[in-house]
Structure formats: structure tokens, C-alpha cells
Write a sequence for this structure.
């Protein structure tokens, strides 16, 4: 008899089980006071914003869809999670990092993450046919939000990809995994990223997404319009892209303070005080 592999239940099921354990009775007997009490219980137990928000999302679905009790869902609100300033590498650190990549394959893949500003999932999902050398673009299929878009393909990045293609002749996936029929996994690329950072002696915590952050920040420091960067990153909201203005230090240094544009308010050294206007 064939062995049936256990399927892990959806994440929301575990959150509902946690809620049932807190209640000590069946969740279909829940009252609004129970919902408020569980929300306070999560906060007092030290649960962070990610867990609280995941629980809120799960219980909202449970109350609205499973129990058909939308009156309970209104008592659940998401917890605001302050956005942290992203870690960004300097251009010099990026150069050292890429040179320290474990192989030509990983150097090319990590160069795509930085040179085109792609998410790690978008890098590993690239196919050979997605490289459009005539239009100098990369086609991104079903990126975040299930949207297709185009990313930039610089001449240097194109040469790196051509070097990789000449060496391995990939068919289908641009960066195949251990089995050629499957793409490289995000975990594989993340491990290669950590290895490159270690070899380059970079003490910052570097992930593939750090390269995307660095791409956006360096473009902003080159005075590229933030709306253009928004399109390149595939951000739905401009406010998401605006986060990089907090780490674009070159841009901050080059801005002239309005104080420096003021007419001097103090009299010159040899100018007598109270001099007549005429």
C-alpha cells in the first residue's frame, strides 16, 4: 500500500487552535469578550507584531467565512509594525561581495538581484527566454501581487549572463537547481549570499534582499526620479519606495540647507551698527 504523505494544515488552522486552547471550549461558542481577551492575552504574552497580525488575519477569516460571524471579526485590529531602515551596502562593498561569490552561477544570480533590483523569488524564477538583449530588459512573470513587469538589463549584467550561459548552456531555467528541470531554490541563493558576504569580510547582515535595497538606494543617490525607481522595483505604492530616502546618505549630504540660502542677518565686521538706510 502506498504511503500517504502528511499534508501540513494551513497556517490559519494553527492560529485557530491556539484560540480554542485559550478559550477551553469550542470556538463556535465564542463571544465578543473572548475575542478581546485573546487579543490582550497575545500582547501580554510577548507576541510580536508579525504573530499578532497573522493571528488577526486567521481569526478574521475564521469568523467571517467559517462561522459566518462578522460581528466578531470587527473586534480584531492589526498591530502597526514600525518599518526599520533597511541594511544597505556601499558600492565598494557590493563589488567585493560579488567578486567573492562561490561560483560563476551564483555571481550571475546575485548580480541580477543587485543590477536589476529583483526579489530573490524573481531571480530564481527567471528563464533563459526572459532575457531580452535587444530591448535590454528582463521579463518578470508573476512577480509580487501576481503581476508581470520588465526590469532593467544593463550591459555589464548582460555580459555576466552571457558568460554564465557559455559555461553551462542552461535550458529553460536561467539558474537551474540541483536538478536541471527545476530552478535554483531561494534557500540555495540565500546560502550563497551568506557565503559571499563571509568571504568578502562584510560584517553587515547580508541577504539577497539587501542587494535589492542597495540597488534602490544607489539609484536614488544618482538622482534617479523616485517614481522611476518605483516602477523598476515593482512597488504598488510610492510610499514603499520612499523608505529608501532614509538611507540615501549621498543625497542627504548634497542637499543644501535653506539656512545656507538666507541673506546674512548679522552685520559685516567693519559695518557700523545702526547705519542709515540711505
Amino acid at each position: 500500500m502506498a504511503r500517504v504523505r502528511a499534508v501540513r494544515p494551513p497556517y490559519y488552522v494553527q492560529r485557530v487552535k491556539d484560540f480554542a486552547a485559550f478559550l477551553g471550549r469550542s470556538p463556535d461558542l465564542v463571544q465578543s469578550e473572548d475575542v478581546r481577551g485573546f487579543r490582550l492575552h497575545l500582547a501580554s504574552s510577548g507576541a510580536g507584531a508579525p504573530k499578532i497580525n497573522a493571528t488577526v488575519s486567521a481569526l478574521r477569516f475564521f469568523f467571517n467565512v467559517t462561522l459566518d460571524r462578522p460581528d466578531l471579526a470587527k473586534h480584531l485590529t492589526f498591530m502597526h509594525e514600525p518599518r526599520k531602515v533597511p541594511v544597505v551596502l556601499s558600492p565598494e562593498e557590493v563589488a567585493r561581495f560579488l567578486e567573492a561569490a562561490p561560483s560563476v552561477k551564483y555571481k550571475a544570480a546575485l548580480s541580477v538581484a543587485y543590477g536589476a533590483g529583483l526579489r530573490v523569488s524573481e531571480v530564481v524564477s527567471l528563464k533563459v527566454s526572459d532575457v531580452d538583449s535587444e530591448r535590454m530588459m528582463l521579463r518578470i512573470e508573476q512577480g509580487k501581487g501576481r503581476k508581470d513587469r520588465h526590469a532593467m538589463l544593463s550591459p555589464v549584467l548582460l555580459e555576466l549572463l552571457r558568460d554564465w550561459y557559455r559555461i553551462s548552456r542552461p535550458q529553460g531555467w536561467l539558474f537551474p537547481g540541483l536538478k536541471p528541470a527545476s530552478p535554483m531554490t531561494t534557500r540555495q541563493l540565500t546560502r550563497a549570499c551568506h557565503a559571499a558576504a563571509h568571504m568578502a569580510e562584510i560584517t553587515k547582515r547580508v541577504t539577497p534582499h539587501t542587494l535589492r535595497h542597495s540597488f534602490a538606494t544607489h539609484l536614488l543617490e544618482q538622482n534617479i526620479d523616485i517614481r522611476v525607481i518605483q516602477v523598476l522595483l515593482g512597488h504598488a505604492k510610492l510610499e514603499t519606495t520612499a523608505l529608501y530616502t532614509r538611507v540615501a546618505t549621498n543625497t542627504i549630504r548634497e542637499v543644501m540647507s535653506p539656512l545656507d540660502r538666507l541673506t546674512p542677518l548679522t552685520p559685516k565686521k567693519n559695518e557700523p551698527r545702526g547705519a542709515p538706510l540711505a
User: Anything to note?
Assistant: Confidence is low (pLDDT under 50) at residues 1-9. The two ends are 108 Å apart (CA to CA). The beta strands are 131-132, 137-140, 149-152. The first strand starts at residue 131 and ends at 132.
